[in-house]
Write a structure and sequence with these properties.
single chain; mainly alpha; transmembrane helix
Length: 146
């Protein structure tokens, strides 16, 4: 007599648990893709705008050296490319690194806004940093399960 006939309820519970885990993994994957697309859109636009606006204008408005603004813009565009969801499937470690980098940038951006008494901007930094942290955590979890 096999275990399924002896313990039908246990077999049913095992199938349900497996099905639930698969559904949860798919939901997490969809949420990560959605978060990544949002981050890609925000940082690609932010970086490209910084590159499109004349450097001296931004340097004066942001009270930062022009070279630093170009560096930030290039970092934002590079992170947007690295966070593109299709690339996550090719090399998830790059996606995790990009998300951790953006999380760090958002902490620094919040400190910058705080130093300039631009407190209204900090919730944006917290939200984007939180999304980046979620992506880093989720993709690392997926990588560990693979």
């Amino acid at each position: 007599m096999n275990g399924t006939k002896m313990f039908p309820k246990a077999a049913t519970m095992a199938r349900t648990a497996t099905k639930t885990a698969t559904t949860s993994r798919k939901a997490l994957h969809a949420a990560l893709d959605t978060a990544q697309v949002a981050l890609v859109a925000v940082f690609a636009i932010a970086g490209l705008l910084k590159l499109a606006i004349p450097n001296h204008v931004l340097a004066q408005a942001m009270n930062l050296p022009g070279g630093l603004i170009v560096f930030i813009a290039l970092a934002e565009v590079a992170a947007a490319i690295a966070l593109e969801p299709m690339l996550s499937r090719v090399n998830p470690r790059v996606t995790i690194a990009a998300a951790l980098g953006l999380m760090t940038v958002m902490v620094l951006a919040a400190m910058y806004h705080l130093s300039r008494a631009e407190v209204a901007m900090i919730p944006n930094n917290v939200m984007l940093g939180g999304l980046a942290a979620f992506v880093a955590w989720g993709r690392a979890k997926e990588l560990a399960l693979a």
